[in-house]
Specification:
This protein has five helices and seven strands; from the N terminus they run H-E-H-H-E-E-E-E-H-E-E-H. By secondary structure, it is of the alpha+beta class. The chain has one domain: PH-domain like. Strand 3 and strand 4 form a beta hairpin. Helix 2 packs antiparallel against helix 3. It is elongated. The relative contact order is 0.19.
Length: 139
């Protein structure tokens, strides 16, 4: 389990499903990094940015909340109560469909939209979340 998510759990809260950002979603940045590597090492900055984005993005849902964290030095978090999430959309472009990554967009009461880009296997996350939400609503 990732460090931010572990530290954000409250009493009685358990991680139900955790997802990672897909390294394939970072492919354009990696390609630019490799292409610009011969030019005074500029490519290292691109490769480093892709690596940091990959390692510092966390996403999970627990029995109480959806938790997402982005960033290394500056941090951005999204935390939504599971019962307040009204819909989960999956946005995938052609490469996302082929390489199985996409953006999850959570919509809910009080928070119009919370996009979480580059998630690996977004359909599995959505399916697991919706099944959990149905079980929780059923009792």
């Amino acid at each position: 389990m990732s460090s931010y998510i572990r530290g954000a759990l409250i009493g009685g809260e358990k991680v139900v499903y955790q997802a990672r950002i897909s390294w394939l979603s970072q492919l354009p940045t990696i390609v630019i990094g490799l292409a610009t590597l011969p030019f005074w090492g500029i490519g290292i900055l691109f490769l480093l940015a892709a690596y940091i984005r990959y390692k510092t993005t966390e996403l999970a849902f627990t029995n109480k909340r959806v938790i997402a964290k982005f960033g290394f030095i500056s941090r951005k978090t999204v935390e939504l109560n599971v019962t307040k999430v009204e819909s989960v959309q999956v946005n995938q472009g052609i490469f996302g469909r082929i390489l199985n990554y996409g953006t999850l967009v959570f919509s809910g009461a009080g928070n119009p939209q919370a996009p979480i880009p580059g998630i690996s296997d977004p359909m599995s996350f959505r399916r697991s979340f919706m099944e959990f939400q149905d079980r929780k609503a059923a009792g």
